[in-house]
Amino acid sequence: MRWLPLLGVGVLALAGCGGGGSSSTSTKSASSPARGRLVLAGLQPPSGCYVTVFLIEDATRAQIRSVQNRLLANKGVAQVSFVSSGLALERFGKKNPAAAKGMHVNPFSDQFEVVPRSRAAVFSIIGDFATNGGPITNALPSGVCANAKR
Predict the structure, then answer these.
(1) Helix, strand or coil for residue 45?
(2) CA–CA distances in Å: residue 28 to residues 35, 36, 76
């Protein structure tokens, strides 16, 4: 599977991304920025616009925790889910059972699915990793983000 470059066509496709996910009310005061919510990933990815942050193959637990904390602290993030490589393979198997049956190794990496608070937040999420690096290989918007009306 080939992914778009981190700062190439993928970012340009984000121009029409609408905010995704559910809005949640916060009990924090107006002076305290809202923090993203950590939610359990399931067999289906989030509905709507979201960003997938792919981790390096040999990411340590400390590196994974660091990326998770960084995402949760980003003001543009509404929701974060950790998707293990095993869950990613299970999802693939549900959509493509014949292809999954023939696989002898798991080609998927651990990843995060990140629901932004707004259109501009998608740029913030991807831009953070593009400028500050981290143990990731890529960050891509979902097709809903890239195909939204401009």
Answers:
(1) coil
(2) 9, 12, 16
| Residue 118 binned pLDDT confidence (cut-offs 50, 70, 90) | confident
* Assigned token pair, 111: 């990843």
Cα–Cα separations (whole angstroms), residue 44 to 38, 39, 87, 95, 110: 16, 13, 10, 10, 15
User: Cα torsion for 132, 141, 121, 138, to the nearest 10°?
Assistant: -10
CA distance 21 to 36: 12
pLDDT in tens, 28-61: 445 456 788 999 999 999 989 999 999 999 999 9
DSSP helix/strand/coil, 62: helix
User: Which listed CATH number (3.40.50.2300, 3.90.45.10, 3.30.70.3040, 3.90.190.10) goes with 9-19+36-146?
Assistant: 3.30.70.3040
